[in-house]
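new request in #modeling-help
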Amino acid sequence: MSAPLLSTRDLTVQFEGLPVLQNVSLDIARGEIVTVVGPNGSGKSTLLKALLGTVPPESGSVQRAPAISIGYVPQKLALDASLPISVARFLSLPKRQSAARIAAQLDRVGVAGLQSHPMQGLSGGQFQRVLLARALLMSPDLLILDEATQGLDQPGVARFYRLIEEVRRDMGCAVLMVSHDLHVVMSASDRVICLNGHVCCQGTPHVVRSAPEYRALFGLGTEGTLALYQHEHDHAHDAEGTHIHGPDCAHAKATLEHSHD
Amino acid sequence: MIDAFLVRAALAGLGVALATGPLGAFVVWRRMAYFGDATSHAAVLGVALALGTGVPVFGGTLAVALLMALAVSILASRGHAMDTTLGVLSHSALALGLVAVSFVTGVRVDLEAFLFGDILAVSWADVALIWGGAAVVAGLVAARWSRLLTMTLSADLAQSAGINPKREGLILTLAMAVVVAVALKVVGALLIAALLIIPSAAARLISRSPEQMATLSSVIAALAVIAGLGASWTWDTPAGPSIVVSAGAVFLILQLRPKGAKV
């Protein structure tokens, strides 16, 4: 087994003296899709910043494979109106890219022909896809997506997840996806990690996917790209309400009451 | 026959324009206008210290501007409320400089020259110093262009590509201090920030790419230098402020140009 692309050991990060992450240990292997879920304020963004190296750990370590190429898709990019920049120019950052490569990646993410558009004129969905195209142009070993599906409706999320699956299949990169959606995750995730300051639980969405309710919930339109990840649901109805921090929460049976839309 | 002092003044101004164009673009993109103010105001303190200690004015200005720029960068990275902090630092440095200059004895200090520039009095040595400093800044920004631009878009994006955003920020800080030291003689401490911002703001109106904006910013600054010197020669107006007024006029003309007009 080869060394992980990225791993943390007992990673602890503080912000103004308050712990945001405590003793987080995780590995991401080559080609693996890992989804990190957690509520707001659970330290997901801080974890990403620590993995990228913008936030220094208080203790513990972050190890990156040598010469790793990371394609990072930020949650949002505050593009100042004073900066004139076209999609093609943006895609050439930080490394110059050929027109052919730019065209190919724009085509892959479903926004072909946008090259000469100013970045500020893109819709939210187009902007997100351009951010993904830029990350793919880095020929990443690891693709890091921060809340990439925010603002998309369920079919939109399903299309985006299918795109990520295709990208992983074609390029063989590992994917680390962060999502605030605690229950619905990408079915292609090899692992789901629930974060709430520390790693609450880990599991696969597989258990839930095999549940009979699954087809009924996501059978149409989403073509199996969505899966449930079970934990922390409705504590009022859960005798083991504290299991959110237990090791077994991923294996709980799917009994969520989701409604179709 | 054009007088030699006018040639020197024009060359000095063009040298400054070379550096303020690309740096000014970053000042506008990164909303560092106040940062430019604080750094250039600190230059007055640098002048006072240089005169008091016998250090060359350029060196004293550079050192104090650099210290101020570093202090501001460190405070900004620690998340202080920058509006107030910069206001305190900027005006304190300016006032302290003005007070300190009054203590300098033995040398007749032309305070106005440092506040508003004295471009018509530059020597050939000044011109050489200005072009040297401007070349360093323009070269530094050009060489690290892609990194600086990526870092301007997003620190996280830069970091993910192996670019250290702190180092790139430091380079802009350093470039700012050099520009302040270089431009002090040309437009003076009070108007250096204007020369950074106005040509870039004007260039934004007719630019479609970051590179175009930085280049046009230098071109507009150069036009403003020539026009300002011309105005100063014709109407005997103060040269430094005339240059800034010219830049402002270019901005106004571009802002008011008919919609759809190709420039």
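bot summary: Chain B has a mean pLDDT of 89.
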